[in-house]
Amino acid sequence: PYSGPSGDEILAKRKEYLNPSLLHLYKNPVNVVEGKKQYLFDENGRRYLDAFGGIATVCCGHCHPDVVDAIINQTIRLQHSTVLYLNHAIADFAQSLASKLPGNLKVVFFTNSGTEANELAIMIARLYTGCHDIISLRNAYHGNAAGTMGATAQSIWKFNVVQSGVHHVVNPDPYRGIFGSDGEKYARDVQDVINFGTSGNVAAFISEAIQGVGGIVELAPGYLPAAYSMVKKAGGLCIADEVQAGFARTGSHFWGFESHGVVPDIVTMAKGIGNGIPLGAVVTTPEIAEVLTRRCYFNTFGGNPVCTAAGLAVLKVIEKEKLQENALHVGSYLKERLTALKDKYELIGDVRGRGLMLGVELVTDRELKTPAKAETLHVMDQMKELGVLIGKGGYYGNVFRITPPLCFTKEDADFLADAMDLTLSRM
Ligand code: PMP
């Protein structure tokens, strides 16, 4: 049994010693002391179904024994920087990771986070093209360092001292956007921005395939192929941010961009890649990667043996346990159940997403799409009381984000949908 400090004691320490802008999701935050598969346990041993762990990096399930073994076995042998010496862990993982990507995307740079991966991708694109301008989507989240905060496009995540060189185009959001699901119409704004906001040449276009922080917004079909072709004509590179949608989460494909039928020039990843271990990566072509030889590029812990050993174990688990297929089957089933709730409750304005990356948007008026912010918090809190943890997102904070570990079962899906049903029925 757990004998550490209580949740209240931890909260008091957080208030005194930690970042004052730290968030927590609940009125009474859960003190999680253990995780196993798709479950988290609090200080009293109470079990919660974790339907948000995917966003916080877990794809194989909490503390998966194969990943834990890989971490322990490597830790007792060597943990060091991989920059100066040879070590097989980084090379083995780079090879396996490259084999999961299409085309000539074969060169891997390792980082410690998604932010670092996107920072590097943006710099590589600027070096390769000799241009500075970046095009990013409104409602995007790409990180919180200088360049990536510029690319991030939600005011709550931006500080006003960032100089970015980023142009934000109209978001191809099928639910709230003005062109519905017509991706090609939204893409016209990319051409407009190139024509009227730049010299006619750009460094890069960056986007998620499904916006995560932005509230599980699936880009309208046809958008990415049209936008990619405009950006390529303007000499720019296309960057796919797979930090959330990658690693089998969308079920139908291993990478989110694949369902849009495009092949990016640079792919960035983090979160699920290490199942909870700090790890990120940038994958690009040998020709593009070459630009970094103009100077020295160095990242002390990027690709360290412990993290890359974990990464390799994650890829093996995804394959061995058929987690992509599971994400497709269980995710499709859960989406059906959530869609049925939409028919039952006026409060649900939209149900969307793919595989185990699902969103439920709450509105107080379906015509006006008025964000139901308070209701969202209430439902999340009540579901927590019933033992189910879900996340929230979207600019208005009115979208549930359901992104569980990929080992989520049909029974878990039923439990989640039943808990949401019961909570909504009591409102
Ligand atoms: N890109 C996307 C799509 C993300 O969701 C996030 C994190 N929410 C990041 C980049 C940044 O990753 P990190 O927090 O690891 O820096």
TrEMBL record:
This is Uncharacterized protein. It comes from Stylosanthes scabra. Keywords: Pyridoxal phosphate. Belongs to the class-III pyridoxal-phosphate-dependent aminotransferase family. The keyword Lyase does not apply. The keyword Secreted does not apply.
